[in-house]
Amino acid sequence: MKMIKQILIVAATQPEIQPLLDHFGNEKPFDVLITGVGMVATAYAMGAHLSTKKYTLVINLGIAGSFERRIQLGEVVEVIRDTLSELGAENDTEFVPIETLGFGESQLNNTNYLSKNWKGPAVKKVNAITVNTVHGNEASIEKISKRLYPQLESMEGAAFFYACQQIPVPAIQIRAVSNYVEKRNRDNWKIGLAIKNLNNFAIELISALIQA
Predict the structure, then answer these.
(1) Tell me, what CATH number does 70's domain have?
(2) What gap in Å lies between CA 10 and CA 156, rounded to an integer?
(3) What span, in angstroms and rounded, lies between the C-alpha atoms of 64 and 85?
(4) Which residues contact residue 64 at a Cβ distance below 8 angstroms, ignoring those fewer than 6 apart?
């Protein structure tokens, strides 16, 4: 395994990675960036931070909702493609993506698969969308599912990939599923389980990286 010397951990909120921070304490072998929730906050925070320091690997950690019931609540996955699903225009009932308009790209890929740095248990690779408004309406869920076939959704992932590509710097996005994308029902959420599994995985991953 190739030695990773400068690691940046990126998360939208500190509670999502608090167990990781507690585990390593004051002698953390990585830097931490808490961006705030949403793609705008993420893009700004990462642009500002990455312009001041260079890294050999940037890891985005967070929780997410799953469109697929085959993905279990609490399961840890690697996002390998993320789409800015709202970036484009409406033409009556048709959605026109930004690529068709000729003004940019809405699909972003990770720049460093987990398998390049990790020899532990395999995690599922998934495609995700990044949204300003998380889905909670049956009609809108059906519509986005038919258009993009997403497996996960978050509010930061694609912005994270975009910032890393602009530098450029190798990037990995790891998420744990806290809920299914459905009509909003907090009783069905497993946020605690998702955070626990996410951080256990992150601790194992980072420990392997720094010991290699």
Answers:
(1) 3.40.50.1580
(2) 10
(3) 15
(4) 128, 152, 153, 154, 157, 175, 176, 177, 178
Asked if residue 33 belongs to a domain, the reply is yes
Structure tokens at 124: 């599922």
Residue 40 has pLDDT above 80, yes or no: yes
- Per-position b or e across 88-100, b if 16+ CB within 10 A of its CB: beeeeeebebbee
Structure confidence at residue 68 as a pLDDT band (50, 70, 90): very high
Q: How far is it, in rounded angstroms, from Cα 21 to Cα 33?
A: 12
Residue 13 forms part of a structural domain: yes
Q: How far apart are the first and last CA of the chain?
A: 6
Domain with 96 in it:
7-211
In a domain, 65, yes or no: yes
Residue 119 is predicted with a pLDDT of 81
- Rounded Cα gap, residues 209 and 56, in angstroms: 12
Average pLDDT on 167-192 reads 94
> In the chain, how many domains are there?
1
φ, ψ for residue 32, nearest 5 deg: -130, 135
Both structure tokens of 116: 């390049």
Q: pLDDT grade, residue 3 (50/70/90)? A: very low
